[in-house]
Write a structure and sequence with these properties.
single chain, mainly beta, Cathepsin D, subunit A, domain 1, 6-stranded mixed β-barrel, 5-stranded mixed sheet, 11% helix, binds 2-acetamido-2-deoxy-beta-D-glucopyranose
Length: 388
């Protein structure tokens, strides 16, 4: 039993973007000495035929997906987690502090060896629950697949928390919304749209599971790819202007065993959070209805009898009047621990701070079942059944 907490911790670490799992909002120092010159945006939508590009993602233990980008001229490659739960992009810097082991362990950006580097001025600091990432803003060309944006602002990290030393990706590329209230520069995807390198302001994720084998996970920039989903999309409108957040109607079991969020509640889709996170009181109701045993610790996970998992009902997220079911194997995961198989919920309970609005975070365990399109032009998110 006492190996469990360590294993759980590992799982949380690989769900790296703790800003996602624990939903710590992004903060950044103001940089009054420098103002970004805005590139005029073209009206949406500009073209009918999409110039979309598929980016292959690497699946790390079904808990995090990351992919290659290059920065600078000549380009230097980095692996980044594509994170819909945050907006900034950062990679480790060659100037990272010697005492910051996490930063030393990874590929590092060297401004002196790029012809397209520009001094952006200003510092950044992003608070995750595992610690803070800090450094300064720089600008350079950034290439994702064969899509290149110029003058992209990104963070060069010189301090990273010790706990980031065990992750597999070098940095993070935020696909969330730019915070104009703190003068945040345009995101990579904003620049792809304004510089005309994608034709539609839409991107989509297909996340495979290691067990299903075969197909690679894919991030499609500039559209959706029908090879990866079946049926129609269920769309939900964004409920706030600056997050991939929407209203959910209900969360219920297919056999009626329990229903929560009965009068509606808020949900977020987060491509860099491994688990599905809900308010702890509601998750307690759901999990105890199935006989899950709560484990000590936060966020709260539940243990299940592995021999019974296949008999458990579907968990249905009701969005815009449509049911999006998850099979029990998607909300309960088998983990080999010390030669034994343990069944743990991938739906976990979180206590929100007083000033925070409780939300459900639909992370990777949800997005594997549902191909998800993030549509900035229409301020909506679409879910369709992923083709595995
Ligand atoms: C970029 O990639 C797409 C799809 O992979 C391909 O069709 C297109 O020709 C490529 N463009 C360039 C300029 O290489
Ligand atoms: C690289 O960045 C450092 C720190 O901001 C700066 O002192 C240096 O001048 C930069 N190098 C180049 C070639 O601009
Ligand atoms: C990038 O910045 C330079 C000036 O520093 C400017 O001449 C160029 O037009 C910019 N390119 C884009 C695509 O914004």
């Amino acid at each position: 039993m006492n190996v469990l907490p360590a294993a759980v911790l590992v799982l949380f670490l690989v769900s790296y973007c703790a800003a996602g799992i624990l939903n710590i909002p992004l903060t950044k120092a103001r940089t009054p000495q420098w103002k970004f010159k805005r590139v005029p945006r073209r009206p949406w939508p500009f073209r009918v035929h999409a110039l979309a590009k598929d980016i292959k993602l690497i699946n790390y233990k079904n808990t995090l997906y990351y992919g290659p980008i290059t920065i600078g001229t000549p380009g230097k490659e980095f692996n980044v987690a594509f994170d819909t739960g945050s907006s900034a992009m950062w990679v480790p810097s060659v100037h990272c502090l010697t005492r910051s082991v996490a930063c030393q362990n990874y590929r590092r950006y060297d401004n002196a060896s790029s012809n397209t580097y520009k001094d952006r001025g200003g510092t950044f600091r992003i608070e995750y629950d595992l610690g803070k990432v800090a450094g300064y803003w720089s600008q350079d060309s950034v290439t994702v697949g064969n899509l290149t944006v110029k003058n992209q602002t990104f963070g060069e990290a010189i301090i990273e928390p010790q706990l980031f030393a065990d992750t597999t990706n070098d940095g993070i590329l935020g696909l969330g919304f730019r915070h104009t209230n703190i003068d945040e520069d345009p995101t990579v995807f904003d620049n792809m749209v304004s510089q005309g390198v994608v034709s539609d302001p839409v991107f989509s994720f297909y996340l495979n599971s290691i067990e299903s084998g075969g197909r690679d996970s894919v991030l499609t920039l500039g559209g959706t790819n029908p090879d990866y989903y079946t049926g129609d999309f269920t769309f939900v409108d964004l409920s706030v202007p600056d997050q991939w957040q929407f209203k959910m109607d209900r969360v219920q079991f297919s056999n009626g065993a329990a229903t929560v969020c009965q009068d509606g509640c808020q949900g977020l889709v987060d491509s860099a959070t491994s688990l599905i996170v809900g308010p702890i009181d509601e998750v307690d109701v759901i999990m105890s209805a199935l006989g899950g045993i709560p484990m000590p610790g936060l966020p709260r996970m539940y243990i299940f009898d592995c021999s019974n998992v296949d008999n458990l009902p579907d968990l249905e997220f009701v969005l815009n009047g449509k049911k999006l079911p998850l099979k029990s194997r998607d909300y309960i995961m088998e983990m080999p621990i010390d030669g034994k198989t343990v069944c743990l919920s991938s739906l976990v309970g979180k206590t929100w701070e007083k000033e925070e609005t409780p939300v459900w975070i639909l992370g990777i365990f949800f997005m594997r079942t549902y191909y998800t399109q993030f549509d900035k032009g229409n301020s909506r998110i679409g879910f369709a059944k992923a083709k595995h």
